[in-house]
């Protein structure tokens, strides 16, 4: 069973930046599509950004376009989420997920992703 692990979360002031990392055990992330999702208290989980296995295709939620960048380093089996100009509304637990299939990043697509990490807390507050 593939295990994912997120890191890089923390407390940051509005306008600040964080970089989240997603790594995997066993055979790694090389052949998998990877997504970043987040869930704020009392809200449904939502897709933030996804990247194809090749890295050539990326998607972003409208709320993070122009501020967040997803990238992957297949040689190191890591997927990053660079988050700039963070806002209080970005506060949530951030999860990475992976799957061999092409699954929608937005809407309720998150329910179909096979592998998940435990999440990392991102808090944006002054």
Structure description:
The chain has 126 residues and is mostly beta strands. The protein contains no helices and eleven strands. Strands 2, 4, 5, 6, 9, 10 and 11 form a seven-stranded mixed sheet that branches. It has a four-stranded antiparallel sheet with strand order 1-3-8-7, with no helix packed on it. The mean pLDDT is 94.
Lay out the secondary structure.
Blueprint: E1 4-7, E2 10-12, E3 18-24, E4 33-39, E5 46-51, E6 58-60, E7 68-73, E8 78-83, E9 92-99, E10 115-116, E11 120-124
Parallel strand pairs: 2-11
Antiparallel strand pairs: 1-3, 3-8, 4-5, 4-9, 5-6, 7-8, 9-10, 9-11
Large-scale geometry = globular
The portion of residues assigned to helices is: under 10%
Rg (C-alpha, Å):
13 Å
Order of helices and strands: EEEEEEEEEEE
Q: What is the β-strand count? A: 11
| Biggest sheet features | 7 strands, mixed
N-to-C span:
40 Å
- Give the mean pLDDT: 94
Strand fraction band? over 45%
Broad structural category: mainly beta
Q: Which structural traits does this protein have?
A:
4-stranded antiparallel beta sheet; globular; 7-stranded mixed beta sheet; mainly beta; 126 residues
What is the compact description of this entry?
With 126 residues, the protein is mainly beta. The chain is built from no helices and 11 strands.
